[in-house]
Specification:
Blueprint: H1 25-39, E1 46-47, E2 50-51, H2 52-64, E3 80-82, E4 87-90, H3 96-104, E5 109-114, H4 120-123, E6 129-135, H5 144-158, E7 165-168, H6 175-186, H7 191-201, H8 209-221
Length: 223
Amino acid sequence: MKRGSWSSRETNWRAGLSVSPRVGSSGRKLLDNIRRLEGCGSGSIVIDGLPVVEYLRNLRGEVRAGNDVSLTRRRFGMDITWVTDRIAVGGGIWTASNMAAVSRAGITHIIDMQIEFDDTPLAEPHGIVVCWNPVDDDFEPKPPDVFARGVEFALAALKENGAKLFVHCAAGVHRAPMMTLALLGVMGWTVEDAMDLIEKLRPAADFAEVYVRSVERFLNGRR
C-alpha cells in the first residue's frame, strides 16, 4: 500500500462492486465482508488451506452465482509476518486454535494493540505473556505512553533467551505496524529503513502519516 494512503476523511470510502441480481441482502452483506477482508489481505493469511487472495476470489464467485455460502464455518489460519528472526507482526488471534498455532510458532510474548480483544485468557494456557496495549485505529495522534508501554515490554522480553515477540492488531495493517515501527526505531533503525523493511515483508502494512508522526514524536522524546 502507498504510505499515508488513509486518513480520517477516507475511512468511509467504499469501492464500487457489481452484484448479481440473484444476490439478496444477505449476499450483499457477505460481499461487503469479503471486500473488507480483501482490503486487509496479506499473502501470509490462509483460509481453508488456500492463500487469502485465491480463497476470496473463489468465495466472491460463489456469492455472485447465488450459492449458499457462509464465513461462519471457514477455517481462518493465523496471519503472522516475521520482520526479524524474533519479531513478528500480524492480525488478530481471536480463537484458542489460533493461539495454539501462535505457540507452535515459538512465540513467547505478545503485544496486543486491539481495543477490541484482550488475548490474555487465550494465552495463559500456553505460558505466553501478553501486553494488552489497546488503542483505537481512528487516525488520530497516539500519545508517547502507548509506544513506551509496548517498547518496554518488548525490550524486556527480547532479553530472554529464546523469546519471540508477536505484535498484532485486528488486521495487521495500521496499529501493529505502527508499534513495530516504534520498537525498531528504539532498537536503532531509522524510521524510513524500518518502514521499508516492514512494507517489503508485509505489503498489507499501511503507514498513515498521523501514526508515523506519532512514532517520530515518541522517538525524539527519548533522545
